[in-house]
Amino acid sequence: MGMADKERDMSEQVLEAVRALLPAIAERAHEAEKLRRIPQDTVNELAAAGLFRLLQPKRHGGFEADPVLFYRTVRELAEVCGSTGWVGSVLGVHAWQLALFPDRAQQDVWGADQDTRISSSYAPTGTVIPAEGGYRLTGRWSFSSGCDHAEWAFLGGLVPGADGAPADMRTFLLPRADYRIDDVWHTIGLRGTGSNDIVVEDAFVPAYRSLRFADTSALSCPGHEVNASPLYRLPFAAMFTTTISVPVVGIAQSALDVYLRTTRERIRVAYAGQRVAEDPHAQVRIATAASEIDAAWLQLTHNISELLRVAAAGEQPSPRLRLRTRRDQVMASQRAIKAIDLLVENAGGRSLREGDPIQRAWRDAHAGRVHAANDPERALALYGQGALGLEVTDAMM
Fold it and tell me: Closest Cα to residue 246, out of 15, 86, 52, 54?
């Protein structure tokens, strides 16, 4: 067995270990909603299984796994608990992003504990002031999923130029001691993600703990000097947005699975006791929903695999491939929403009861859809511009 095969086997072992946890995680789905964060037992078990190390550099105890395997693991988590899938996806991908930072920043986070996790909030809502040797940050950053289970945070910020206007956008890396978490996550969907606010009051961030957004788009980051795997030469826009879409696809699959189980035995009293399983309209909904989910998954994984193949060949991904990846990523979320809506419309009144997995899937999927990465019009317009030969300058491509 070659080295590549051994590494693949180790990554597959993580997937199998996570699969063994799924029944218990499914039982905790209601607890996650009640707590408004993932139960600590679940996080501990996922960490022990290796989920958060799948995209982590080997030099820091990670697996440098094929990203498709990571996303497959996330999807299966989301199929039993949407919030757990979402948090597993977001916290898991941050190990990949830290690998792009200067080596000194990686050592700060993983030097003492290779299981250290990072949450994020990329919207540049705070204030950044250049200072000697770095920057000073102040402000509030919202929607930091899983922040209660992380010891560091990635925060987006605009760096002003000499004239005071924004001149650069960066991701800043802060330790837990430099911020506090404001518990504000009261929502109707993805309740268990604990996507609370992070509040910073005049914290100093050394320059090496920041990363230019332009460098991630250009695939020229400081971390490439020490992390040579093609995994770390994928566009940030592709990895991050796929991270947000995959849980929604998993949630849609969970809705389909539940719908199939309940529909096999369901009777419509209003239609003379007709078995819903014999209703051709229900059958068409099932086929349509299943096809939408399959199409979403196939396009997501195909594009990520193509980007990895290009990186392994030492090439730069073409603008067309980047735009296609974004197009298919937002369409994956749209397809998942369409699938769930088709099923919920035909699931009957019992599906509306509190605690029913169908209504939870509907709430979670629609909550995930409103994330900026899943905004279809913007991404689809970018693809249209490129197809028409117009210049596309958006960083999220």
Answer: 86
- In 3-state terms, what secondary structure has residue 206? strand
C-alpha to C-alpha distance for 251 and 75, rounded to whole angstroms: 8
Contacts of 184 (CB under 8 A, 6+ apart): 142, 196, 197
Quote the CA–CA distance of 178 and 175 in Å, as a whole number.
6
Q: Would the pTM of this model clear 0.90, i.e. be above it?
A: yes
Other CB atoms within a 10 A radius of the CB of residue 117 amount to 20
Confidence at 1, pLDDT banded by 50, 70, 90: very low
Who's near 91: CB < 8 A, 6+ residues apart?
A: 52, 117, 118, 119, 145, 146, 149, 150
Q: Catalogue all structural domains in the chain, each as residue range(s) with its CATH number.
A: 3-115 (1.10.540.10), 118-213 (2.40.110.10), 234-387 (1.20.140.10)
Per-chain mean pLDDT for the chain:
93
Backbone phi, psi, residue 267, to 5°: -120, 135
Q: Give every CB contact of residue 234 below 8 A, 6+ residues apart in sequence.
A: 67, 219, 304, 307, 308, 311
pLDDT tens digit string along 10-29? Answer: 889 999 999 999 999 999 99
Identity of the residue numbered 34: K
Question: Which residues have C-beta within 8 Å of that of residue 57, sequence separation ≥ 6?
Answer: 64, 95, 99, 106, 226, 227, 229, 232
Q: What do you get for the CA distance between the two ends of the chain, in Å? A: 38
Residue 365 carries which side chain, given as an amino acid letter?
A
Alpha carbon 206 to its chain centroid, in Å, reads 27
